[in-house]
Amino acid sequence: MFATQFSSLSFLNNWRTKLTYFFITPMINLALLVLINMQYSNQFNWDVAISSIAMDAAVLALETFCSAVITDANLKIDFELIAKKPFSFRYWLTKCFVAIIIGCTLALINLFLLYLVGAPLVIIKRALLMLPLSCIYGCALGFVSWAISWQMNDPYFLENIFSSLAQLISGVLVVISAYPDWLKAIALLFPFAEPVTYIKTGHANLIYSIFITFIWLIIGIFAYIIQIKPVLAKGKHHY
Q1: Closest CA to 200 of 57, 50, 39
Q2: Transmembrane region positions (predicted)?
């Protein structure tokens, strides 16, 4: 079953897309954020580089989860799922497990490369500690973005928004305590800021990030439940 899930991910189809997703894109994001940070700090900050990789891992987990369930929807597997067992623990756990593996793989590759060029081990250890949690948060928001966008013309609508905002709302470039109040309020609506704060400082309110993730999951489950009947009706009409 896991092999099937991995084979359904388009970016794993050849070495070029693997190289792009797991190395080129993360390194470009890292370079841009580090260079922007250097404009006002006048120094190279490893915490920005390492936090950037951790967030790219979370975003890839989010995108992987969302892509997997959208692929199932395109194949009408979503209709079969909700008709028989809409809350299948095995189904959703498999999606999460695959997304977490993909996200962690990205992070491990790039953190190892950063270690080889002199990244401080203490910050890398913090990133590794936060890595599973960050990817779980990515899965949670992947589910929410899919559930809300399920019947939209563009099922990737909310995923694209979350992915685009992730680096900003996580405080990779600047810790959110230094944000203006309005931007801090937005950042605190998402769970990514606390893991990034921990990577940078060694201290964070992780309980808060877990609570926010739980709230997002409630929203996603509610969106999922209220759309089950319309999807079933559409599926029966289609068949």
Answers
A1: 50
A2: 20-36, 48-71, 91-116, 128-148, 168-193, 205-226
Q: Is 136 within 8 Å of 212 (Cβ atoms)?
A: no
pTM of structure: 0.91
Please tell me the number of Cα atoms within 13 Å of 178 on its side-chain side: 8
Query: Which residue do the tokens 């609570």 mark?
Result: 211
Query: Domain residue spans in the chain?
Result: 1-234
Instruction: Look at phi and psi of residue 88 and say left if phi exceeds 0, alpha if psi is from -120 to 50, else beta.
Output: beta
Task: State how far Cα 50 lies from the chain centre.
Answer: 16
The string of pLDDT tens digits covering residues 148-207 is 998 888 889 999 999 999 989 999 988 888 889 999 999 999 999 999 999 999 999 999
- Give the number of C-alpha atoms closer than 13 A to the C-alpha of residue 239, restricted to the C-beta side: 10
Distance in angstroms (rounded) separating the CA atoms of residues 70 and 145: 11
CA 5 – CA 77 distance, rounded (Å): 13
* CA nearest to 62, candidates 134, 4, 13: 134
